[in-house]
Amino acid sequence: MTTTPENSGADVCVIIPAAGSGTRLGEPVPKAFVDLCGRSIIERCVDNVPESLGASIVVVVPADMVARTRFLLPEVTVVAGGAHRADSVRAGIAAAGAAEVILVHDAARPLTPASVFTCVVDAVLAGHPAVVPGIPVVDTLKQVTPDDGGLERVSRTVDRDQLRAVQTPQGFTRDALLRAHADDSGLATDDAGLAERCGIDVHIVPGDPLAMKITTPWDLRIVRSIVGRR
After folding, report:
1. What is the CATH number of domain 12-136+164-228?
2. Nearest Cα to 104, choosing from 93, 112, 119?
3. 15: which of 35, 118, 170, 190 lies 20 to 30 Å off by Cα?
C-alpha cells in the first residue's frame, strides 16, 4: 500500500492497550496472547497496522508479559499497563514521544483493515481533533426497565438511524488525547468517551465489519474461521 497524500509525512503513533485479562473469553492466557491460527492475537493486530502510515507502535501489556511481548514483537515499543484501561493508555502516551497524531487501537480487533487506519488519520489531519470509526446499528434496540415478574419490560424503542457501533483505532491530535486523559476521576469504555466528557468534539468515519472485537468464545471462533480461510 502506498502512502496517501493526506497522511504523508505525519508523525503517527499507534498505541495498542493489551493489558486486560479477557476473562469473558475463558482462555488460560490473557486475551492478547491467545492463539489465532499460529500467531497470537496481539501479533496479528500489529501485523495489520499499515506500513504506509510510517507509524511507531507502542504495545501495553501486563507487567509479567513485557519480556515475552518484546520477544514476539521486537520491532515495537512494549511497556507495562495499569489496573484499568485508561491507566494503560496513559502508559502508552508516555511512551509515544512527540507524535502529532496518536491512534488508540484495541488489541482485540486484529482484523481491522488498513483502510480504516488511513481514514482515521486523514480525518485527524484534516482538522478534527478526535475521530472514531463506526458502523450503522442494524438490530432493533429496546430500552428496558426491571419488572416485578422477573423479566425486563420494554420502555421504548430507540431510533437506530442516529446510532453507530464504534470501533477502533480511535484517532486524536496529541493535545486532544492529553486533555482527554488529564482528568482521571472517572472511567470510560473508550478514549472517545473521555474526550466527550471534557468537551472535545468527536467525529465519525466509516468503520468496517472486519474490525469486530473478540470478547466471547463465539467471537474468537468467527475470527479464527476468517483467518483460517485466508
Report:
1. 3.90.550.10
2. 93
3. 35
Prediction pTM value: 0.92
Domain ranges of the chain: 12-136+164-228
| Residues 138, 141: Cα–Cα separation, whole Å | 9
The DSSP secondary-structure symbol of 3 reads P
Q: Evaluate if residue 48 carries a pLDDT over 80.
A: yes
Which amino acid, one-letter code, is at 211?
Answer: A
Q: Which three cell numbers stand for residue 185?
A: 476521576
Q: Is the CA virtual torsion 77, 83, 86, 87 positive or negative?
A: negative
Distances (CA, A) of 159 to 139, 154, 163: 11, 14, 7
pLDDT tens profile 115-148: 999 999 999 999 999 999 999 999 999 999 998 8
Output DSSP code: residue 29.
Answer: S
